[in-house]
């Protein structure tokens, strides 16, 4: 019998309103190196008159020192305390005041939730349920209170004291301590509370809102990072302006603060007025951060700022509604990035993440709808399904309603619900009512798990000059048909877009959005004068798998001519997939491998197309990953996929060597800048270098080594290092040591050093990873460092899924270590075993053995237990 404490599932259907509300809370923190005292004074009222229910407050790892009810000290017989709750069995059916003083020890908080220390500074992370580790409270998102926060600390050690809202008072005490009082005028749930105290540097700026108010902007970092903040500040200013212009949303406080911390479980947190960020998404200079880092920082800064309205001003009723704020805000940051950079590149990048991570999650034991029906540990549901698929569902509204219709829905949503904790149904109702459309069927996107599959087939009638496109949904018996928008174009024989009409009176368009609502529907386009080549699911108009029989000649044609950039890229990915799987069959049959000449010619046309943006071209020249290819198989052919993909890459490098070298040289001498043009040139140049280095000759190694040593930016230096770690050269070891000595004192760059080595496809990678675990600069205590090596290596399919299972055993060892210190990160890491049933019998047995070992471990956290029990299909 397997038993774990507190592993009872919580269900959405059981939601009930809170019995009590908290209108205001006054917090007083006395920060001390040994014990921190938290004094809380709350005004509480019952939800209904004459109710006679106990007050049950959440609390974990708290030492209760005193409790007062309306100013009177309570004795131990008047309340009950256990590991997770403080209960007052007899409270009046009217408003009352409750005061408590608790002790906490932030310096011992390795889980990094609640109040903890990072590099000697205090900071908080309260989402989802971290506030209960700070003081006793109704720690749920539908309890919204107004907060005032006073922080007292030693001034020499903690000169900066920050919290939510506006700073209203401050002063000094006689014992060398000082204090600051903050007041947040807006009611908020406890998960948005924030506190920071430490020795920090402020990179300041300002923003003038459209109504003329001046907002103070502050980026707070450790002093040694003072020169890495300007990009974050500019990103914040751009996000604030964009939100005003696109959605009419203006910032509402006098100050907006961002604090960068080195130890953080997540990317960033949108606490009202005081965002706490993983330093990875704030700090950058050209020599320490890549182009992708710069774009990632801008996107995350924007994401957390956008939460001020979609998450803070309007928040979730309960945690099952998490996608209400996260899916919506991810969509908003995606739209922002599309406008700031390249819409086509951003769309492809987002779909790659969706397909590689979210589609995989849909195939796993942890599959769930974007609005889950149950959970054991809420932290396990901060997933790509809730975030990324949730964003795709929000995008569906805009695809169906248009940008203007979507804006009308957003306006009505804020008009109705500002200051409230609401549900996904409230958002859907606002969209429907604002546009006077029926979106009832749309609820299935929230209720049904899994990736919809649509089959498409077309018939051209030359006599009637029509093209009939039939779409069929493959829907499991327990599910119902989705409402799916499918954007369609038709190409003529010269590659031109044909004009499309569904009805004689309807306006003609080159792209038509079809609404698939039934299990099967046929759409007939009129006045089609020639046999067309379909371009389906343009701009990836819905998060589905589309099955459409397409000949290789047609894919090559779409690669060369499709006006939709996403579908042009998609045609290349489908072509490459077909080629790789055919070669895999030959490899498994022991045949000599030979690259398809048509595919090679299609790649050459992309190489020679001067009209293509360098970033798009780089994406089009990148083959599908082994992980993605494995997802398309009933049983993952680990060794075969690795061998065949390596063969294709090397063949393309050999056959088109002159073209790769020409591209490299043409883009190599451009001076560094952060412009879109320069970024595109670097991306294309480094893609060419990666192909060139597949040949692993003295000449190609010398090219990479030269770039590595002479580069003036991290994008080029890291790309060259990635090439060198995959060569059997003397320069490989020299470059690894040189990079370490150069950047050993920069934690974020040192993370890159660990990651690059974990991605190597050479056979000694596992041994190197084992050695790096013992490196003086490696620690499991820092989530970024742990992710940089462990999480990255676990995605290195051929090396992680070794036939001997040694990597599985090592990974399980690490999960169990983290289980005791940081369960949230441990549960993320153990998820790599979720797909164990999709591998061959030998690997299945090896992974299953490690899962059984983990679940039988004493004191297993509910975070890890939930993932492992679902993976093993353990009941009870």
TrEMBL record:
Q: Where is the Peptidase M1 alanyl aminopeptidase C-terminal domain?
A: 553-873
Q: Keywords, A to Z?
A: Aminopeptidase, Hydrolase, Metal-binding, Metalloprotease, Protease, Zinc
Instruction: Domain (Peptidase M1 membrane alanine aminopeptidase): give its ranges.
Output: 232-445
**Chain ranges of the Aminopeptidase N-like N-terminal domain:** 26-192
According to the UniProt entry, what is the EC number of this protein?
A: 3.4.11.2
Q: Which domain of life is it from?
A: Bacteria
Signal sequence coordinates? none
> Boundaries of each Peptidase M1 alanyl aminopeptidase Ig-like fold domain copy?
450-548
EC category name: hydrolase
- Zinc: present as a keyword of the record? yes
Any one Pfam family here would be Peptidase_M1_N
Gene Ontology terms for molecular function: alanyl aminopeptidase activity; metallopeptidase activity; zinc ion binding
Q: What is this protein called?
A: Aminopeptidase N
What organism is listed for this UniProt entry? Beggiatoa alba B18LD
């Amino acid at each position: 019998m397997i038993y774990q404490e507190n592993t009872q599932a919580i269900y959405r259907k059981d939601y009930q309103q809170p019995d009590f509300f908290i209108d205001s809370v006054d917090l007083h923190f006395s920060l001390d190196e040994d014990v921190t005292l938290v004094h809380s004074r709350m005004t509480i009222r019952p939800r209904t008159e004459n109710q006679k229910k106990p007050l049950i407050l959440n609390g974990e790892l708290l030492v209760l020192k005193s409790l007062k009810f309306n100013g009177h000290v309570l004795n131990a017989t008047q309340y009950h305390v256990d590991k997770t709750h403080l209960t007052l069995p007899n409270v009046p059916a009217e408003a009352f005041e409750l005061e408590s003083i608790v002790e906490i020890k932030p310096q011992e908080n390795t889980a990094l939730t609640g109040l903890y220390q990072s590099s000697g500074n205090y900071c908080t992370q309260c989402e989802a349920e971290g506030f209960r580790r700070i003081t006793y409270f109704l720690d749920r998102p539908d309890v919204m209170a107004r907060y005032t926060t006073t922080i007292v600390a030693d001034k020499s050690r903690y000169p900066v004291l920050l919290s939510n809202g506006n700073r209203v008072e401050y002063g000094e005490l006689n014992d060398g301590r000082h204090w600051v009082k903050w007041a947040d005028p807006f009611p908020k749930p406890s998960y948005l509370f924030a506190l920071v105290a430490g020795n920090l540097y402020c990179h300041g700026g300002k923003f003038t809102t459209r109504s003329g108010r001046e907002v103070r902007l502050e980026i707070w970092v450790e002093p040694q990072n003072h020169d890495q903040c300007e990009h974050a500040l500019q990103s914040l200013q751009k996000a604030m302006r964009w939100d005003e212009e696109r959605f009419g949303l203006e910032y509402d406080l006098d100050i907006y603060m961002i604090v960068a911390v080195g130890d953080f479980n997540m990317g960033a947190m949108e606490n009202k007025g005081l965002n706490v960020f993983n330093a990875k998404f704030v700090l950058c200079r050209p020599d320490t951060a890549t182009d992708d880092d710069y774009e990632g920082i801008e996107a995350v800064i924007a994401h957390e700022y956008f939460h001020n309205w979609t998450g803070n001003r309007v928040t979730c009723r309960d945690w099952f509604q998490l996608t209400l704020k996260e899916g919506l805000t991810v969509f908003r940051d995606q739209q922002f990035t599309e406008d700031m950079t390249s819409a086509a590149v951003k769309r492809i990048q987002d779909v790659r993440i969706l397909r590689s991570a979210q589609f995989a999650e849909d195939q796993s034991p942890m599959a769930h709808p974007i609005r889950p029906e149950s959970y054991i540990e809420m932290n396990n549901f901060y997933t790509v399904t809730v975030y990324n698929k949730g964003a795709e569902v929000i995008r569906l509204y805009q695809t169906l309603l248009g940008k203007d219709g979507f804006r009308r829905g957003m306006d009505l949503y804020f008009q109705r619900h500002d200051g409230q904790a609401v549900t996904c149904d409230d958002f859907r109702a606002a969209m429907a009512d604002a546009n006077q459309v029926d979106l009832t069927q749309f609820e299935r996107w929230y209720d049904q798990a899994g990736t919809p599959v649509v089959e498409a087939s077309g018939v051209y009638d030359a006599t009637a000059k029509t093209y009939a496109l039939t779409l069929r949904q493959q829907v499991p018996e327990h599910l119902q048909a989705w409402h799916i928008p499918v954007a369609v174009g038709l190409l003529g024989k010269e590659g031109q877009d044909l004009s499309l009409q569904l009805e004689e009176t309807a306006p003609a368009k080159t792209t038509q959005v079809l609404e698939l609502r039934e299990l099967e529907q046929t759409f007939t386009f009129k006045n089609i004068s020639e046999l067309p080549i379909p371009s389906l699911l343009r701009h990836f108009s819905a998060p589905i798998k589309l099955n459409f029989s397409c000949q290789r000649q047609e894919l090559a044609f779409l690669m060369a001519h499709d006006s939709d950039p996403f579908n042009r890229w998609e045609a290349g990915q489908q072509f490459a997939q077909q080629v790789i799987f055919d070669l895999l069959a030959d490899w498994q049959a022991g045949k000599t491998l030979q690259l398809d000449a048509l595919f090679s010619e299609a790649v050459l046309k992309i190489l020679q197309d001067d009209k293509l943006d360098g970033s798009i071209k780089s994406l089009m020249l990148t083959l599908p990953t082994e992980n993605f290819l494995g997802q398309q198989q009933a049983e993952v052919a680990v060794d075969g996929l690795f061998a065949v993909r390596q063969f294709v890459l090397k063949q393309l490098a050999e056959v088109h060597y002159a073209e790769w070298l020409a591209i490299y040289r043409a883009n190599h001498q451009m001076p560094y800048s952060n412009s879109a043009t320069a970024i595109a040139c670097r991306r294309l140049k480094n893609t060419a270098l990666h192909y060139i280095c597949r040949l692993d000759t003295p000449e190609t190694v010398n090219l990479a080594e030269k770039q590595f040593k002479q580069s003036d930016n991290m994008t080029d230096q890291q790309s060259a290092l990635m090439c060198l770690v995959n060569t059997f050269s003397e320069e490989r070891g020299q470059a690894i040591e040189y990079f370490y000595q150069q950047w050993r004192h920069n934690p974020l760059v040192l993370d890159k050093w660990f990651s690059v080595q974990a991605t190597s496809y050479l056979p000694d990678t596992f041994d190197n990873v084992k050695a790096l675990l013992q490196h003086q600069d490696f620690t499991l205590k820092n989530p970024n460092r742990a992710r940089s090596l462990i999480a990255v290596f676990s995605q290195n399919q051929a090396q992680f899924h070794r036939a001997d299972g040694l990597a599985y055993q090592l990974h399980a060892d690490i999960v169990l270590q983290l289980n005791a210190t940081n369960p949230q990160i441990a549960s993320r890491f153990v998820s790599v075993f979720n797909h164990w049933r999709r591998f061959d019998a030998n690997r299945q047995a090896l992974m299953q053995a490690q899962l059984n070992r983990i679940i039988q471990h004493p004191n297993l956290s509910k975070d890890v237990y939930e993932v492992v029990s679902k993976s093993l299909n353990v009941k009870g």
